Amino acid sequence: MRARLDPLFTQTLLKIGNGQEKTFEDDLIKIPAPLAINDPMAEESLDELIKVIYPDLASLTEVSRSINRAILTTKNCFVDEVNTKLINEFPGNLVEYLSFDRVENPSHEAEYGDLINSLTPSGLPEHRLSLKENAPVILLRNLDPTEGLCNGTRLICKKLDKNVIHAEIAVGEFCGKSVFIHRIPFEPPTDEQYPVPYTRTQFPLRLCFAMTINKAQGQTLDSVGVYLREPVFSHGQLYVAMSRAKTSASVKLLIKPPFNEHRLNYTRNIVYTEVLQAAEIV
């Protein structure tokens, strides 16, 4: 466990992960106050969380300072909310890359073109990808695993050309390796419903100032923000989010109260104990 040098935090994480943390009304658990933003109902509470995790954006042009921190949240729409705020504040000139979205039947282009542009299905890059040099990004496809380009690899944008992005692998065995990223075709997941079949050709990248909790599995971070605009919705998500941090001092949660605004720092923890029992974990 990453937090083994912080025994009290480790104990809290184990209780959350095993579903043994005390529950209250509506099956909520209470997060220790030192781990949470003080006034989650305030309009500027997200800005406060951002300042805790990214206190000095100008200094984050140094790779080691920008890549080892992130804000984790439940859904891509919340990821985009945070990433948009941060890329606008990040130093440098903004470069926008628009995807080429092509519907399978050309006769549907005029009717559905704008709608398709507005969609960002799970696992696909945005139609409008806004980047700056030195900004952190995460790879969305396995391009060349033998060279370190795997789905989930974190990189730093080094040079933004029209048809190629020069980047540097920021973590792992290939840390420091220079790579070139090109546009590739994507198709939306077959288990999701869309008006018409289509293909999106775009750079396989997403900003990773923020990322989904699921995408953060396996990552170790020096500073972790957890943005719970909505409660977690699947087994083990809260544990995964909080356990990316090494100590209690390096994690901060913003919990937007979903039920009663007077019950601050309460949130849902979904744990299927029968799954853990079958795996002989508890």
Question: What does this 3D model show about the protein?
Answer:
With 282 residues, the protein is an alpha+beta fold. It folds into two domains: 1-90 and 210-282, 3-Layer(aba) Sandwich (Rossmann fold), CATH 3.40.50.300; 92-208, no CATH class. 22% of the residues lie in helices and 25% in strands. It has helices spanning 7-17, 45-53, 63-67, 76-89, 109-118, 237-242, 273-278, and strands spanning 23-24, 28-30, 69-73, 95-98, 100-103, 128-131, 136-139, 154-160, 165-169, 178-181, 184-186, 198-202, 205-207, 210-212, 223-228, 251-255, 266-268. The strands form five sheets. It has a five-stranded antiparallel β-sheet. A four-stranded parallel β-sheet has the order 14-3-15-16. Strands 1-2-17 form a three-stranded antiparallel β-sheet, with no helix packed on it. It is globular, with a radius of gyration of 20 Å. It starts with 6 loop residues before the first helix and ends with a helix. The relative contact order is 0.23. The mean pLDDT is 89. This is PIF1 helicase.
Q: Mind sketching the topology for me?
A:
Blueprint: H1 7-17, E1 23-24, E2 28-30, H2 45-53, H3 63-67, E3 69-73, H4 76-89, E4 95-98, E5 100-103, H5 109-118, E6 128-131, E7 136-139, E8 154-160, E9 165-169, E10 178-181, E11 184-186, E12 198-202, E13 205-207, E14 210-212, E15 223-228, H6 237-242, E16 251-255, E17 266-268, H7 273-278
Parallel strand pairs: 3-14, 3-15, 15-16
Antiparallel strand pairs: 1-2, 2-17, 4-6, 5-12, 7-8, 7-13, 8-9, 9-10, 11-12
